[in-house]
Write a sequence for this structure.
């Protein structure tokens, strides 16, 4: 079945530094990727949607200059948290969707727990 | 806009009990419906899905039927196990291609 690899699984960084999270579709072409943020014991909040080769579309209230998303190929999307602060600490999850959408549905990565100290 | 409402948890059951987690949705058009499961510290895994009315999704003993007349997609399992303890999310995918999640239901199964 479809697999999405996300790494790192955990990262601790100092306040003010930047962190990059990678999301790769291993056995299918992910024409669309989604990035979510999940606070403890809460649901997933969609941050942005990216289509390969296009600029990401950000949800209302999400700072595009802080959360940089790149989707340069059909198998790789990255989320960079720039100038991270403790309030950016969260669980970030990516999701990939193939062209057909309903064939594989939406496949999720295993998540990245970011802690900013 | 589109939305998903699912029963609040936590839900605590004894092993081998019958499980129902209610989910209702609001959407324009004909969304696809999903149940995802999240184990502690992990991402989401697709549990089952249904793409049109009256479809029944099933996997690992779990079932859910797409009911257009009641706009529901309730999750059921006849006999739960301790290993089913997790958070369950009901979700829909609309023509806008986004997935909209419910708030999640935490399920705990006692041995």
């Amino acid at each position: 079945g479809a697999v999405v690899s996300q790494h790192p699984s955990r990262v601790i960084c100092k306040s003010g530094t930047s962190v990059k999270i990678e999301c790769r579709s291993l056995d299918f072409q992910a024409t669309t990727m989604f990035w979510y943020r999940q606070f403890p014991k809460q649901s997933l909040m969609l941050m942005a949607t990216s289509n390969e080769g296009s600029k990401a579309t950000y949800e209302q209230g999400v700072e595009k200059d802080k959360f940089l998303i790149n989707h340069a190929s059909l198998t790789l999307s990255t989320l960079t948290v720039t100038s991270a602060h403790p309030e950016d600490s969260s669980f970030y999850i990516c999701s990939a969707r193939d062209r057909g959408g309903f064939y594989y549905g939406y496949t999720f990565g295993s998540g990245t727990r970011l802690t900013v100290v | 806009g589109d939305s998903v409402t699912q029963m609040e948890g936590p839900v605590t059951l004894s092993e081998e009990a019958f499980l129902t987690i209610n989910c209702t949705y609001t959407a324009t058009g004909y969304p696809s419906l999903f149940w995802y499961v999240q184990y502690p510290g992990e991402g989401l895994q697709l549990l089952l899905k249904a793409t049109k009315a009256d479809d029944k999704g099933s996997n690992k003993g779990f079932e859910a039927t797409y009911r257009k007349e009641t706009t529901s997609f309730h999750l059921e399992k006849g006999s739960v196990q301790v290993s089913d303890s997790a958070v369950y999310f009901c979700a829909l995918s609309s023509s806008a291609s986004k997935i909209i999640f419910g708030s999640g239901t935490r399920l705990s199964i006692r041995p």
Remarks:
- Residues 20 and 76 of chain B are 5 Å apart (CA to CA).
- Chain B has a mean pLDDT of 92.
